[in-house]
Amino acid sequence: MKEAVLNTKNLLSIANEIQAIAQIGLAYCKDQYDRERYKQLMAVSAKLFNIKSEEALELKVKFLAERGYASPKIDVRAFIRKDDELLLVQERQDGKWALPGGWADVNLSPSECIVKEVKEETGLICRAVKLVALWDTARHDHPPHWPYTYKCIFQCEILGGKFESDHEIMDISFFPLNNLPPLSLSRITKKQINELIKLVDSEVGYTVFD
User: Fold this and answer.
1) Which of 12, 80, 178, 189 is the most exposed place for a label (fewest CB within 10 A)?
2) Which residues of 109-144 are buried (b: 16+ CB within 10 A; e: fewer)?
3) What's the pLDDT tens digit per position in 138-160?
4) H or E stretch covering 60
5) pLDDT tier for residue 53 given thresholds of 50, 70 and 90
6) Residue 16: exposure state from Cβ atoms within 10 A (0-12, 13-18, ≥19)
């Protein structure tokens, strides 16, 4: 049997699995001693990340705050083209560019979530035309990150509005497809954008998924 290579991505996968086991245990376990052990597992999973100590502490706090059955978070993103240009937003968090979007909200459908995110981040009013892709971020070339995330990419069309960014966004612009700025790789990769371009151009009638 071929031995697994231990790298950052594998460590993240292990950390995610340990965190999920601990979170589920805390959700259903009543024994106080076992609950303490599950909390210790939460702390161990945070330490497995190859990050600075202050970030590990912040992550530990987030882990311990998770409740209930462990399940993936949903990230919604909008693929909006104008001729041969693609709409991107500059994230204040890292100064790099991504498709408009963010975490899905409760009490809203996925398509309603992306319409809301686009309006908040860009000032534009849009309509979700099609769910182009549903991806498991762990199966793509994103940098290691937490929480475990599924990414929904919607093809959208602009109905109105004007550029107006919120506090999380530094800038908004359309870029030529062959001259994109540095991308925020935790949110979207060049390979994914290239695949989205092909899917939209070919007008396939199905959603690609992992």
Assistant:
1) 178
2) eebebbbbbbbbbbbbebebebbbbebebbeeebeb
3) 899 988 777 789 999 999 999 99
4) helix 53-65
5) very low
6) buried
Supply 38's token pair.
Answer: 């599950």
Angle CA 107–109–115, to nearest 5: 110
Report residue 210 as tokens: 């992992």
In angstroms, what CA-CA distances link 180 with 34, 155, 163, 175? 51, 18, 19, 6
Helix (H, G, I), strand (E, B) or coil at 29: coil
Joined together, the tokens standing for residue 80 give 């909006």
Please give the domain boundaries of the chain with CATH numbers for all domains: 8-65 (no CATH), 73-209 (3.90.79.10)
- pLDDT by residue (tens digit) across 88-116? 999 999 999 999 999 999 899 999 999 99
CA 140-144-146 angle, 5° bins: 105
Burial 160-193 (b: 16+ CB within 10 A, else e): eeeeebeeebeebeeeeeeebeebbbbbbbeebb
